[in-house]
Amino acid sequence: MEVQQFYYDNKIVKKFIIATMFWGIIGMSVGLLLAFMFIFPNITDGISWLSFGRLRPLHTNAVIFAFVGNALYAGIYYSTQRLLKARMWSDALSNINFWGWQLIIVGAAITLPLGYTSSKEYAELEWPFDIAIALIWVAFGANLIGTMIKRRQRHLYVAIWFYLATFVTVAVLHIFNNIEIPVSALKSYSFYSGVQDALVQWWYGHNAVAFFLTTPFLGLMYYFVPKAANRPVYSYRLSIIHFWSLIFIYIWAGPHHLLYTALPDWAQNLGVAFSVMLLFPSWGGMINGLLTLRGAWDKVRTDPVLKFMVVAITGYGMATFEGPMLSLKNVNAIAHFSDWIIAHVHVGALAWNGFLTFGMVYWLVPRLFKTKLWSIKLANTHFWMGTLGIIIYALPMYVAGFVQASMWKQFNPDGTLTYGNFLETVTQIIPMYWMRAIGGSLYILGAFVMLYNIVKTVRQGSAVEDELAEAAALQPVTKKRTAGEAYHSWLERRPVKLTIFATIAILIGGMVQIIPSLMVDEYVPVISSVKPYTPLELEGRDIYIREGCVSCHSQMVRPFRSEVERYGEYSKAGEYRYDFPFLWGSKRTGPDLHRIGQKYSDNWHLNHMYDPQSTSSGSIMPSYKWLVQDELDKSKTEDKMRAMQTLGVPYTDEEIERAQQWMSEQGTQIEQNLYSDPDFATSYEADKKFAEENGEEFTEMRDREIVALIAYLQRLGTDIKAEDLKQVSTK
């Protein structure tokens, strides 16, 4: 049998490893800054692009798509070549994948702090980036599939199955969730509204975790853990069960993020049922990973690579036990909107994704540079710093979550809320926020230790740009199953069929959940009093989105006695009919805002945005002074209304034509309301006089951003009337 010589492409792997470490430290540093903002809310006072609401999506995107994304590419490009005994199909596509991905990350790092966001969690980037992501992802997939076609290894190893499922599913999720109507170069509106948008978003959001943070890393686990332990995978049959059950069940679980909301009950219950079932394939994978180390546990004591991988797999097991538990309605009623969810997410991110990445990098770099790791001692130091960092981070957040939930739901004997002021539930958990910041600091210091160790390792080695390898050419075989050949063994040598079956497995759950939700009239009852936003309210809503207010404030009152008592009538599906996108939120650092309209005066809102502590003593909300000072851009209002009209919002052409006048009238009314405060009137007139005397341009209050935001906030929850409650169902 003829043996062919060829070269593995190590250059692309090294590029992605460098990017992984670079973006990882940046993403974690932004996260650490955000953690300190809970303690020092005005640490970036007056700098709009460094405010919490704008940096929070930058942190999540940097960690998920820059750090973890580059890590999964590095691992996939390295392992795929060796599992398929072939160089990547196209060096050009490899480089397009790398440089295209880095350009998208740089674009995100620029636009998100500037407030260009769709506000959809883990999908905040605006429409040009969505198109770019799709194109780069296709380049990656084409390269993967092209390499499979020219492979020299007949059967596809389990890691390749997970890579294929990742490519197909992420493509489907990304495209369907990011269908939007562009308004300008960096502004768009979601194609879906309200309940529909929430379901599609969390179908995407949950499965972005599943198929970007989990399935590719399971593939990496199946490759790198056996390599590091020098042991075969514990069970081939278990890996088959793990793969097919995981990709089929995972796609159904998204609605568990929306329990007790205005989402239809059938969708919620489907999410709960499949989330509970998800425990079994998840733990099957964990068991398969840990038992692969049988006979190699003595190495774990001394080998930092195995240490990182063991904790990573354990973290995966903990997170995937907690996920199904949190999907149970009685548990979710306590945990949702609280810091418990923050703890849950970071156990998965820091332990599973972070530690598996660290272990992989420690294993790869010495091999890519033909040397040994510069310091085993430093790697072990990094391990313990990271492990303690995770513990010190997560445990206080669990405590904070329990404290929040219990305080939110506490009643006095007379039926009133024990902690009626939401701030009382915030000030109690400040010590836990201190602990989180300390834990995060320790974790990121460990990452710097790793960076130093890797740099020293690279300097003492010599790079192998193109690694020589040899393997026999793939011989033609019958497409039919041979005698005694198991069905799955046959499927493993049929990549097209494997991909088709994986696609069908992930599409079934998506179609069952998404298609019925698009039938608006049947599943979202119409509430006659709910009207479209006025032009000024629409502009105010866009400012609310731009500033990332949804990161800290929900707009969803659940049907609990405590929430109805605290916020008002619980939310109905029909109230969100014209919300493109939905803004239900996933965390309450501040109170829910769905019934905030008309609860406070316009002056209160202005003072609250300018200096939150002046209206709410002890508040950890940062100041938004620029909203009070900056002029509202009204140049695209008509374009926004036409986009809404395209989406089905019943704006008439006449209303669009008189949008500027309409905004001026509503803005003038709010300006007059603000004048009712003598302090405001005196200060405002003094500023106006000073500007006139010095020949400076002066923006009337009615034309400032704060007035638009006030218009939006005063509208929230005011459409629904008592008579409508009798006519509309809650689901």
Structural overview:
This protein is mainly alpha-helical. It is 64% helix and 3% strand. The chain is built from 31 helices and four strands. The strands form two sheets. Strands 1-4 form a two-stranded antiparallel sheet. A two-stranded antiparallel sheet has the order 2-3. A hairpin with a 2-residue loop joins strand 2 and strand 3. The longest helix has 33 residues. The mean pLDDT is 92. It is a multi-pass membrane protein.
Question: Which key terms come to mind for this protein?
Answer:
731 residues, mainly alpha, two-stranded antiparallel sheet, two-stranded antiparallel ribbon, 31 helices, 4 strands, 3% strand, globular
What class do helices, strands and sheet pairing give? mainly alpha
List the strand order in the largest sheet: 1-4
**Total count of helical runs of at least 4 residues:** 31
| Content of β-strand | under 5%
- Give the number of DSSP strands: 4
Uncertain residue segments: none
Family: Belongs to the heme-copper respiratory oxidase family.
Membrane topology: Multi-pass membrane protein
Keywords: Cell membrane, Copper, Electron transport, Heme, Iron, Membrane, Metal-binding, Respiratory chain, Translocase, Transmembrane, Transmembrane helix, Transport
EC number: 7.1.1.9
